[in-house]
Amino acid sequence: MFFLQFIVCLMNVNFAHPTDDISSIYLKPSFFRAPNNLRPTCHSKIYCDSELLHDVQMSSLYPKSRTFLLKKLKYTESEILKKYENLKQNNLYQVPSNTTLKQFINENFEDGNELEEWTPTDFTKNPSIITKIRDQNYKQWTHSLNQIWKTLSRKIKDDVKIHPDKYSLIWVPNGFVIPGGIFEELYYWDTYWIVKGLLLCDMKKTARGVIDNLVSMVHRYGFMPNGSRVYYLNRTQPPMLILMVLSYYRATNDFEYVKSILPELENEFKFWLDNRMITFFKDRKPYRMARYYAPSKGPRPETYRNDYIEAQTFRTEEEKNKFYINVKSAAESGWDFSSRWYITPNGTSFGHLSDIATSNIIPVDLNSILQTNAVTLSSWFYQTGDYSKADKYRAIAYVFLKSIQDVMWRADKGTWFDWDTINNKSREYFYASNFVPLWTGSFRMPRKTVSRAVLKYLKDHKIIESDYSVKFYGIPTSMYLSKKRWDYPNAWPPLQAFLIQGLDRTQRKLAQKVATSMAKIWLHSNYKGFAEKSMMFKKYDVLVEGENGDDGEISPQIGFGWTNGVVLEFLNRWGDVASYN
Fold first, then answer.
1. 61 close to 102: Cβ distance less than 8 angstroms
2. Through-space distance between the first and last CA atoms of the chain, rounded to whole angstroms
3. How crowded is residue 201: how many other Cβ atoms within 10 Å of its Cβ?
4. Listed residue (72, 173, 172) closest to 113, CA to CA
5. Distance, CA of 333 to CA of 432 (rounded, Å)
6. DSSP per-residue string spanning 225-238
7. Which residue has the higher pLDDT, 187 or 556?
8. What one-character-per-residue DSSP string does 359-415 give?
9. Residues linked to residue 282 through DSSP beta bridges, in sequence order
């Protein structure tokens, strides 16, 4: 009866007030704090919001802002801050010289050294996926990728648990896999593909331990932070936890485990409904959808100096705080940075970082992921016999689905687009995120209709040729050369998965043929880079096979967790037909 009443409510589209929005049954008002009343970045003043942090980061004492944030406190935070206050007082409240600052840091901090190498107990030299791979080069490659899990595996030292106030790292109970390169902590959406890769390498126990780490943070904070550092508590990342658990469930059929963590999964989903929803109008109809929105004051601690300098282009503190919020919101999206988040005065995306307006953009990918999360929760609550909650999440999924269809799908263009709430229009630009509804199944049209439309869109934008052959060595993030890492000509592993697996999941022959070609080319490029440089990069150049994508980094970030995970997924699906010859 409840669900029938909800569907009747959906049929009424002539609402008098925004509060009559179809999704207001479950979706609470969006979270907002005025810029002059923003919450602090995190509870630690030294790592997140202090005069000491500002002075150290602005001094360029270290080549990377993260370096200071990885240090361990020798004394209590209050003691160190009091010492620094006295130091500045004795220096007539001027910022100390770099020599004095360095001496102060050496006296009060030490290298964090929080992690220790760890070998997963269920590691196996010959995972079963290898039997699915025909090509001998790719077989050996898979052996090497499997070994990389050991290279990237870490555990947090007990001292972090005993003295959590001395570290920026957040303690978690189990071993985990770092992304690679400079990164020495868990990251949220990276972990989805890491878990997928671990499962394909028969490390189910390790995968569950990694998931439990994220669940423990949801239990502690009510959401999964961007990463397992206190300075990441100002934001989250794309909500992939429920999908990680779904992958584990499909690999193990362990529903007792799913039931045991359902409260935390529900709370993580609720965080988005409570804190990231916004009401807007399209064609005079109200819609309530999700956005990336990370409201806290000041620059990001891990890139403090860059953010602070960029903010000086704005005149007022309110404008600066708005900029900081939008920068953090872009980091929350995982796309930091991209023209995708720019809204220029004339309403285009062809701008600069000062044009960033992330919180005013309704993203295709985020709403699609939340829609499939709701579907998954509904299914699991149905299995537990809680039909009330099953109906609740089925209804929420329906609202997201209808909104994605009404607001984002453009039949005349053949794809989905983000929505600009400032100019009330579709953002008609090519971004690989446009195709995430294919990956999540968040569409209402027949698969045949969708696959044909998307293939035509890919041809229109020269991603594939008229004969359906593939033009690039990967799907470009965008077609705009902005010199930002999440734009052309860079290709990122998660975005390959979204489009290639999305096309494959339509189960239409031509779409699957294109998906197979794209997967083969991506595998070929990744293998070439590995064979020649012994590296797996976090992103690739679509114009040069096997080359690291460029974003101004001094050295390529190698490893690399999500790259390995996507390759293993593609080999699992296409290993019987893909080859390097």
1. yes
2. 60
3. 28
4. 72
5. 14
6. -SBSBGGGTT---S
7. 187
8. GGEE-HHHHHHHHHHHHHHHHHHHHHT-HHHHHHHHHHHHHHHHHIIIIIEETTTTE
9. 285
C-alpha closest to that of 77 among 48, 57, 100, 99: 48
| Tokens standing for residue 477 | 């993030």
Q: Where are the alpha helices (DSSP H) in 154-303?
A: 158-162, 188-200, 204-221, 241-252, 255-275
Using CA atoms in the order 144, 147, 151, 156, what is the torsion angle rounded to 10 degrees? Answer: 150
Do 572 and 146 touch, CB atoms closer than 8 A? no
Q: Which one-letter DSSP state was computed for residue 518? A: H
Cα–Cα nearest to 531, from 548, 546, 509: 546
Contact status, residue 101 vs residue 55, Cβ threshold 8 Å: yes
Q: Write out pLDDT tens, residues 346-403.
A: 999 999 999 999 999 999 999 999 999 999 999 999 999 999 999 999 999 999 999 9
- CA-to-CA distance for 359 and 170, rounded, in angstroms? 27
Question: What tens digit of pLDDT does each residue of 236-280 get?
Answer: 999 999 999 999 999 999 999 999 999 999 999 999 999 999 999
For residues 241 and 247, what is the distance between their CA atoms, to the nearest angstrom? 10
Neighbours of 444 (CB within 10 A): 13
Confidence of residue 558 (pLDDT cuts 50, 70, 90): confident
Q: Facing residues of 568 across strands?
A: none
Indicate the pTM of the whole model: 0.93
Cβ(140)–Cβ(148) under 8 Å? Answer: no
pLDDT at site 40: 74
Number of H helices, E strands in the chain: 21, 14
Instruction: Put residue 331 in one of left, alpha, beta given phi > 0 → left and psi -120 to 50 → alpha.
Output: alpha
Joined together, the tokens standing for residue 186 give 């868990």
Q: Are strands 425-426 and 490-491 parallel, antiparallel or unpaired?
A: unpaired
| Spatial distance between the Cα atoms of 562 and 194, rounded to a whole number of angstroms | 6
**Tokens (6 digits) for 549:** 């994508």
Backbone angles phi, psi at 172, to 5 degrees: -130, 155
Angle at 71 between CA 68 and CA 73, to 5 degrees: 120
